[in-house]
């Protein structure tokens, strides 16, 4: 059983081989893609793909391009999220955002390039092992669904709309739709993809999906909590500025105690989904504990 | 043998079924994607995919999601090209550009959504006919290569860079690299995908590729010529503003007569590539004639 740090280090080692060399074709694009993709980060999503494949006794090496593709998609979404037309952020992980370094146009293209490269990377594995084409097609389809116009991009679109024009009266429903799309989809669909790669049964896929969804909500809820806990420390308040601004977060909808209850609830759901895997789910159980520990 | 108008009309009829309904989930994203994808246009690229599949006695219906996906990718590239951070265009085909209607953030997401949806659409065909997974994987891989970080996106990145920072001393080489990436890749790789769908031989794929490359160059050269011929009519000049501004176009690199020579050259190349298909290549021969007639 590997740890998150071990999987993340594997991903870190392998990511560069799927990227065009910085100097190839004299393209700023290549520098811009590398700048954001190789900027570190937890490598949580690709590590979860690899861990799920190993938990189901699939082939780690075969899963590597799929895991790295998931990280490319995550990175493209951050580059586009940071753009002036979206969140207009100037810093990400302590470094200037992509468009601050390469300009807005090249940052848009770096995102587009990484999304395309994610698919190229997964499809290339099909050339290596054409006899596995059916499994690959369905794994790629899962990831495309999570990333796509009914998944992550839909969540971002809703989030942007609510931020600009206010959220609907049913704020709880609105919050769940945004967080399911923006956050949970890129956990649950990649996990389903891992299940397909490892030839998991329908029940296995459903359990992975249920875990991924609950983990995504847990991830977002603890993130939202951390934001206010951090701010509370700084300015001695119990609610952060997001809660006051009416921005749609777990805190603004459920309050701090309500969000803590949500964390317990999603944790229980995530653990229940893992039961069928017994001791082999240790990696995923540990992740859940890590999340809860963030806000203790 | 169908005509371009007939194929385009087929594409027009079928495109909506691959899109989420406008009202689905109350998403502005769906309106924004539909606004640009269903805005008409020549439907040239998807028609060429369908025509190539029929020329090679492949299955038209099977090719439909691939053809429509190619149009989605073309449309996403136009939405992103028009953004303030790129070309900053306010009109496209006589209508306000996507970001003028939906705002910059939603336009970025509409492009992202269409690119993802293109892959989702192609991958979904794999669920319908899993026994064809290997052919589909390799067809999708061709399209991803054409659209991706070594294809269309690379061409856009170079174009943007040269526009902002000036082009290199070897302007001819720079022009070919930009036009190959920006324009030719989204003809030649979709044609190769059609060849894979129809189980074409390596020689067939190479002929389609050669035709697609030459056609792309012809398309771009006649576009550049049309720009100056149109302007010359308007203002009585023989060279357009692009030529004067030093922007990298066929006209600014080769002049009007040189560009006409290039048109003849690429036409001859395109026709030579079609020889092996004999009379069955009529659709593609006609396209070449149409291009040349634009600038007669």
From TrEMBL, chains A, B:
Classification via Pfam families: polyprenyl_synt
InterPro entries on file: Isoprenoid_synthase_dom_sf, Polyprenyl_synt, Polyprenyl_synt_CS, Prenyl_diphosphate_synthase
Gene3D superfamilies from the UniProt entry: Farnesyl Diphosphate Synthase (1.10.600.10)
Keyword Metal-binding: yes
Cofactor(s) demanded: Mg(2+)
UniProt-listed CDD domains: Trans_IPPS_HT
Family note: Belongs to the FPP/GGPP synthase family.
Protein name: Farnesyl diphosphate synthase
Source organism: Candidatus Pullichristensenella excrementigallinarum
């Amino acid at each position: 059983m590997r740890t998150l740090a071990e999987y993340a280090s594997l991903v870190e080692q392998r990511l560069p081989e799927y990227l065009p060399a910085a100097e190839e074709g004299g393209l700023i694009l290549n520098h811009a893609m590398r700048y954001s993709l190789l900027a570190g980060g937890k490598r949580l999503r690709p590590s979860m793909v690899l861990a799920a494949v190993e938990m189901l006794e699939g082939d780690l090496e075969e899963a590597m391009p799929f895991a790295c593709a998931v990280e490319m998609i995550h990175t493209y979404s951050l580059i586009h999220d940071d753009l002036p037309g979206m969140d207009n952020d100037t810093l990400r992980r302590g470094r200037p955002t992509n468009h601050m370094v390469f300009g807005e146009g090249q940052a848009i293209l770096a995102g587009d390039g990484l999304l395309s490269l994610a698919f190229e990377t997964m499809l290339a594995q099909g050339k290596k092992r054409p006899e596995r084409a059916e499994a690959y097609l369905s794994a790629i389809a899962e990831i495309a669904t999570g990333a796509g116009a009914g998944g992550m991009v839909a969540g971002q679109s809703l989030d942007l709309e609510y931020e600009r024009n206010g959220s609907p009266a049913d704020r709880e429903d609105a919050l769940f739709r945004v967080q399911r799309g923006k956050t949970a989809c890129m956990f649950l669909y990649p996990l389903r993809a891992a299940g397909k790669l490892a030839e998991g049964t329908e029940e296995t896929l459903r359990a992975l999906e249920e875990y991924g969804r609950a983990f995504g909500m847990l991830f977002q809820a603890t993130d939202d909590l951390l934001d206010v806990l951090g701010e509370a420390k700084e300015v001695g308040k119990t609610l952060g500025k997001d809660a006051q601004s009416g921005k749609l977060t777990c805190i603004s909808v459920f309050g701090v105690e309500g969000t803590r209850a949500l964390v317990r609830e999603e944790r229980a759901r995530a653990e229940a989904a893992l039961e069928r895997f017994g001791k082999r789910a240790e990696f995923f159980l540990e992740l859940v504990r890590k999340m809860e520990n963030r806000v203790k």
